[in-house]
Amino acid sequence: MTASRARLRAWARRQYWPAYLYLLPGAVVYVLFVLRPLLMTAWISLFDWDGLTLGTWVGPDNYTALLTDPRLREALLHSLVFLFFYALVPVAAGLVLTALMVRVRIRGLGVFRALLFVPQVLSTVVVAVSWRWIYDPDGPLNGLLRAVGLDALARSWLGDNATALPAVGLIGSWVMCGLCLVLFLAGALRIPRELFEAARLDGAGPVREFRTVIVPALRGETGLALVLTVTQALRNFDIVWNTTAGGPGHSTTVPSVFLYQDAFVSREVGDAAAIGIALTLLTLTVCGLITRVLREREG
Amino acid sequence: MTDTTGTTGTAGTADTADSTARPGRRNRPRVRPPYRRRPRRGAPHRPPRRRAVADGSRRESLLGHALLVLASLVALYPFVQILLVALHEPGARATGLSIPSSVHLDNFATAWRRGLFSEALTNSLLVAAAVVALTLLICVPAGYAFACFRFPLRGPLLALLMTGLVLPYEATVIPLSYQMREWGLLDTYWALILPQVGLSFALGTFWMRNFFAAVPRSLREAAELDGATRLQTLRKVLLPLSVPALTTLAALLFLYAWNEFLLALVLVPDNPGLRTAPLALSFFTGDRRTSDPGVTSAAAVLVALPVLAVYVLLQRRFISGMLSGAVRE
């Protein structure tokens, strides 16, 4: 009894209690503007609420409604397409490009890196505005098509049901490609040169070298790139909102656009909150899966 | 907000005491600032003897550089394109690939006048500066505490902070807007500043914690032997050392705060005079009456320029910071 109390006292003496004072200002801000809102979203998602009058408790109904709502299912499908454009295309392109230049000593790498990073630095609204012009009926893309005699293909790329989704997706590929390439080039610098020599001596061609040397060596960078691009692809509010706002029709809707519209336009706040929580869980799950898969490969 | 590397570029070490609190940190990819690793000609770890194999053939070298040039052009093209459209004479029907024959700044003047951009740029500057200052102010002591002190619940608290790094903040905007209205802060600067400080807190604290943890313990102990209090150790010993880390963090926070869109859209709904630059641009381009591509493009260039200027000055810090996982989406 006394022994354990003595141990407790010794433990308490080793702690530096004033540390909490150092944490306090940040903790206040973090609780008030991140944790409390997050918990409140979860709470709101259990109500049918128009944002003004008293809400009615509906329990998990908003979530079951999510699962059965055809427009949300459609939006999720679009998110999958965006996963392809935002995550898979840039990561694959980055890996292949890195493989093509991995044995080269690059002159002016710093300059290239700075240029390739520009899409990451620009505001998403600026990105949206510039791509809207590229896809404009009078824009450069159609100008190029007309210049080479493919007038029949020219169209309003973002206004056409068939092309709007891949057109928005390509913007994402553009934003993310530079990030992936810069990440992978940085990682490739750390691959020991002996590995390439050994692979070559073993008679490995470029494809086998890619599979057996480059991809395994860049596993960490690939994981980071996937986590970053996947979260962007699943959230993806800014670019969609500022290019098509989900249109034409429903052809580019994503869950976050519904979240915004439900919460601040049509005032079905409970539904919107449920979308927010579901989106959070989905993002966390997918990112968790990516890290887990990469860990298993490693071990 | 995402931190995927766990350890940031400025600091690679972390005490084992925390590894239990941060699930999955063992397998977090570690990315270091790449520029430090850039091989230099004649550097000792890269003897010239091996370069023939290491550098590949001349053809490979040409191909690699050509690809990089091409990729860089693609990365720059959209911005260059709107810059060209903006420089056309006003009212000119800029189409696809046309290049202005002479430089006109009239589109910029029109955009500036019509889009409230002088207010918007001032707002953005003010908000971004306030977010950076406040975030640094709360993150430095918090990072110091997590890195250097032992206190109850340190692990769980750190884990709680981790959720802030991976949280898609769409999930917080709905209650935030009601909370701000209730507190009478909706449509004020505080509505733009405080939530962003909260969102940046996790990133900043991890950043500073990793930096402080990498500073040799003996340095702090020496300061304490000299009779310095813990606060003095932070101020007189650690802070002077952390100027580079603080600059990188400040640059990143500035970038994220400047570019923030959704929070501004939700939290200053009814006061056009408080719109930040991206928000003003979004409203400006959404307005059918101003659908002249020249003016729209000029507005976009106006919004992008301040960030690009900061980027040109501090690009290495941006890149190393973002590559080390300090990405807030």
Characterise this structure.
Chain B: The chain crosses the membrane at residues 66-87, 125-146, 158-177, 189-208, 237-258, 294-314. Chain B: Its main location: membrane. Chain B: One of its GO terms (cellular component) is plasma membrane. Chain B: Residues 121-314 form the ABC transmembrane type-1 domain. The complex is a heterodimer of chains A (299) and B (329). With 299 residues, chain A is mainly alpha-helical. Chain A has 15 helices and two strands. Chain A folds into two domains: 2-33, no CATH class; 61-298, Orthogonal Bundle (MetI-like fold). The longest helix of chain A has 32 residues, at 70-101. By secondary structure, chain B is mainly α. Chain B has 13 helices and no strands. Chain B is globular. Chain B starts with 50 loop residues before the first helix and ends in a 6-residue tail after the last helix. The interface between A and B is large, with 120 and 118 residues.
Helices and strands in order, then pairings?
The complex is a heterodimer of chains A (299) and B (329).
Chain A: H1 2-14, H2 19-44, E1 47-48, E2 56-57, H3 61-68, H4 70-101, H5 109-116, H6 118-121, H7 124-134, H8 140-147, H9 164-188, H10 193-201, H11 206-217, H12 219-235, H13 237-243, H14 255-264, H15 269-298
Antiparallel strand pairs in A: 1-2
Helix pairs in contact in A: 2-15, 3-15, 4-9, 4-12, 7-13, 9-12, 10-11, 12-15, 14-15
Chain B: H1 51-54, H2 58-86, H3 106-114, H4 117-148, H5 154-166, H6 170-182, H7 189-214, H8 217-225, H9 230-241, H10 243-259, H11 262-267, H12 277-286, H13 293-323
Helix pairs in contact in B: 2-13, 3-13, 4-7, 4-10, 4-12, 5-7, 7-10, 8-9, 10-13, 12-13
